[in-house]
Amino acid sequence: MHEWALAESVIKAAVEHSAAEKLKKLKEAGVVFGELQAIDGEIFKFALEELRAQFPVAKLCKFKIIKQPAVFRCKACAHEFPLKGLKKTKDEAEFIHFVPEMAHTFLKCPKCKSPDFEIAKGRGVSISYIKGEK
Amino acid sequence: MTDIDPRPTVIAERLKHVKRIIAVTGWKGGIGKSVTASTLALLLAKRGFKTGLFDLDFAGASDHLVLGAKGLFPKEEKGLEPPVCQGVKFMSVVFFSENKAVPLRGANVSDAIIELLAITQWGELDFLVLDMPPGINDAALDVMRFARGAEVLAVTAPSLLAHDVLARSLKLYKKLKVPVLGVVENMSAGSRAKGADAVIRRDPGLERALGRPAALLKTAFARDLARAAAKLGLLK
Fold first, then answer.
1. Residue A125 in 3-state DSSP?
2. CA B12 to CA B192: how far, in whole Å?
3. Ordered structural domains, chain B, with CATH
4. What pLDDT band is residue B151 in, cutting at 50, 70 and 90?
5. For residue A29, how many other CB atoms are within 10 A of its CB?
6. What is the predicted ipTM?
7. Cβ contact (<8 Å) for A126 and B98?
8. Which of A1, A21, A99, A131 to mutate to test the interface with B (most CBs of B within 10 A)?
9. Domains, chain A, ordered by start
10. Chain B residue with minimal CA distance to A11?
11. How far is Cα B229 from Cα A45, in angstroms, rounded to an integer?
12. What gap in Å lies between CA B135 and CA A64, rounded to an integer?
């Protein structure tokens, strides 16, 4: 259920954005789920539903989930590689789920075995767009 | 629009019920910052204060060794609830690293710290002691930005090098308008030190007490730290 804390951050960020843009109502927001963090979409959506009632401006907002594949770029050999095929245990996957940067502890570049890589795409949760009424 | 990182918006909420945040800093390595932060948390908890300890030194996380924390893991409940160790709510990257190296670049450290600040549910605390990342890098600056109102407890050592670096750090905190609670000189040879508000004398028995909180609290180090904390208004 740690998804709840991230869902709360998404609602709050969307509400803050609506205030900055002087939006009266939030209509839709795009929520990116980076593949690396492996967010449980059902729990996240349930949390959003629960939390939405606390923020009148977001009451009718639809949250569209956009899944983004993870892409890594090795700093040592410049090799670009996906998450698929990288070995990790169930525990390691859970640690990465809580703190995606733990990927540097448990994963390595498949070409040169370096842990010094960049998470170029698909790290965690972000908001890609917000639509609303002025 | 560019992607919005939503996490910073909830950090203030997570720290809302924390009365005081004490950021234990030290810009030189090996001066006892982690032992000071961990022992301070133990002393505060022992006096009945609701206390948290957050080890933010990701590369050199060692508070768990000082506390002798073993077999602990945060509870997942609308975020992560820190496990309680010796009366102290404790959060550290070691819960997620299986005690392996965490080879992170600066921006990654910052990202990981923001993640943990956003998902950790500290609840009500009288004190949250932060064992700060060493030096002043983007991670340390981020912590200062997000942990608003944090008071710096600067640890130094009786060395020209440590004192010079300390002077620079104090100037920067002034510039950043970060309140400095005081300067503690650790590993001191005497009971007075130039430029320090309090001293902790070198304690040859300290090493043997690491990992054993009850023994740690009986050391001369802990007694000196308690005196320093009282002088700085943390303990009465």
1. strand
2. 38
3. 8-231 (3.40.50.300)
4. very high
5. 25
6. 0.95
7. no
8. A99
9. 3-133 (3.30.2320.80)
10. B6
11. 46
12. 41
